[in-house]
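Subject: sequence -> structure tokens, single chain

Hey, anyone have a minute? Need the predicted structure for the following. Not urgent.
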Amino acid sequence: MSNPTIPLTFLLILTYSALLSQSIIPSRYDGFVYRKRAASTATVLIEAFYDPVCPDSRDSWPPLKQAVDHYGPTVVSLIVHTFPLPYHDNAFITSRALHIVNELNASATYHLLNAFFKHQERFYSEQTLNMSRKAVLDKVIDFASSTLGNSMQSAINSGFNDSATGTKTRVSFKYGCSRGVFGTPFFFVNGFSIPFNDSEPINYNGWRNIIDPFTTKQRNI
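Reply:
Had a minute. Here:
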């Protein structure tokens, strides 16, 4: 997991305290529902907090996706929340791109997330160190539009000019802080956090071991 240093941990604690008195309640539940399947408490509900430019987020995604696909929508629901880490320079702008695309076409959100993970190194801090903020923004817009289709470029660009998309991205981060998220990836299953170990990330079999007992209980009810 990409974890903050002690000063940053302290900063997140202060942020969390401030959020309690300055919370923004969104018009609908935060996050991107996987494959547009309605998330349901009748299923095993997994929530993942991801930073699009976090290597550990990238590496944890394939086994989680494989497990969710294995069980199907009647057994497992998945919601991904963006959690742009403050020490990843381009985390907020790539997270915002996901929120913009989700508003334009929710079926394309995970396609763009996959692309960010696949080509993540293009947006590492050292790759954009000598670029202006405008140049980085143009790079993200060009990448998103080339990934999803150039016909979306104008709409994506307009999305970055809409303050509402910035608010949604901040709400996602604040929501994560309110639930005690402090790094990425961070997982909840049925509302309870799942420990994540950098040296032993959750693989496909690990997710099966977590989910299988709940499916057994469902069959016995």
